[in-house]
Amino acid sequence: MLRAIPVLVLGFFLVLGSSVAATAQNVLGGRLDALPGTPENPLNVGIGIRIDQITGVDQKAENYGAVVVLRVEWTDPALAFDPEELGRDIRVFNPPDLANHAASIGSVLPAFVIHNQQSNKWIHESAASLRYDGRVLYVEKSSLTLQAPHFDFRKYPFDTQEFHFEVVSVFPSEYVTYHPLNEFSGLGDQLGEEEWILNNARLETSRVLGLSGKESDQVALVFEGNRHLTYYVIRVFLPMLVLISVGWALFFLDEYRRRIEIAGGNLLVFVAFNWAISADLPKLGYLTFLDFVLQCMFLMTGALIVFNVALRRLKVSGKEGAARTLDNYAIKWIYPLGYAAIVAYAVSAFLLVP
């Protein structure tokens, strides 16, 4: 069988044999000097992924931490044994012992990597069982940090983000294929995540460029997250509405100097808002919904200061009637309609796009 294996692929696994198991912390990667299947009869492996806890979501680093239960199932006739001789139908192994047992009889375990893993994987518990017919069940519970490159903050804070947990075979698809174990996959009932509402969990299968440089099978648990909007309504939008109302109330003051002073204070508040919100997000190359609204409010407040300075200049130069006329237009039309136009454009340009 080894003669049929391309020399380049086999050489790759010979060199990678020990390093993959170490860097990926993959207890099923004990032996990589051969292949578990053949192009005519690839080894079919079931993958189940269940996330029990979300330990944190770091928007700035675009990653998240999770406690995950991973289930791997396959059948290898080379691992079969005589149940009457052993006295039972199932043998239970510590995973490293299973790898050693498989290597001793010339079998190869279907090693895998977690494609979007960013940190060390700390395995809390793991076990493997071998049935007399060669059916293997491997289960591990571990915690790790995972990359979330699909984050898109354009609709922030009304955004829906996509989270992935991707398991990829070390071996090319012609030797190992994956199928999803949907009944053992999904999200736990108590994830411990307060900021996000997580739902719509599903398994997706695909083929990606693997470590061998060839296409490898991948099974990914994909789920979505929405923010608790009550927080943003109370902490962001309600204060913004108060500031806008204060800016509008300034037009009812007869003293233009007082208007300028209060509007200047509002301007500083908007600067603080901008810094506080940007601290939660990475340095993006595009505007978010909230960025756009805040910047427009900042410009409107700056324009309000300039407008009141101009009114005071008209009053000082003896054109108080013209100043009052412009003031009246600003109260009734310019200020409220200006903000209405800003919000309408922001909703259509950011929230209503696919």
TrEMBL record:
<dbReference type="InterPro" id="IPR006202">
    <property type="entry name" value="Neur_chan_lig-bd"/>
</dbReference>
<keyword id="KW-0732">Signal</keyword>
<feature type="transmembrane region" description="Helical">
    <location>
        <begin position="332"/>
        <end position="353"/>
    </location>
</feature>
<feature type="transmembrane region" description="Helical">
    <location>
        <begin position="289"/>
        <end position="311"/>
    </location>
</feature>
<feature type="domain" description="Neurotransmitter-gated ion-channel ligand-binding">
    <location>
        <begin position="38"/>
        <end position="178"/>
    </location>
</feature>
<dbReference type="InterPro" id="IPR036734">
    <property type="entry name" value="Neur_chan_lig-bd_sf"/>
</dbReference>
<feature type="signal peptide">
    <location>
        <begin position="1"/>
        <end position="24"/>
    </location>
</feature>
<keyword id="KW-0812">Transmembrane</keyword>
<protein>
    <recommendedName>
        <fullName>Neurotransmitter-gated ion-channel ligand-binding domain-containing protein</fullName>
    </recommendedName>
</protein>
<feature type="transmembrane region" description="Helical">
    <location>
        <begin position="260"/>
        <end position="277"/>
    </location>
</feature>
<keyword id="KW-1133">Transmembrane helix</keyword>
<keyword id="KW-0472">Membrane</keyword>
<dbReference type="InterPro" id="IPR038050">
    <property type="entry name" value="Neuro_actylchol_rec"/>
</dbReference>
<dbReference type="Pfam" id="PF02931">
    <property type="entry name" value="Neur_chan_LBD"/>
</dbReference>
<dbReference type="InterPro" id="IPR006201">
    <property type="entry name" value="Neur_channel"/>
</dbReference>
<feature type="transmembrane region" description="Helical">
    <location>
        <begin position="232"/>
        <end position="253"/>
    </location>
</feature>
<dbReference type="InterPro" id="IPR036719">
    <property type="entry name" value="Neuro-gated_channel_TM_sf"/>
</dbReference>
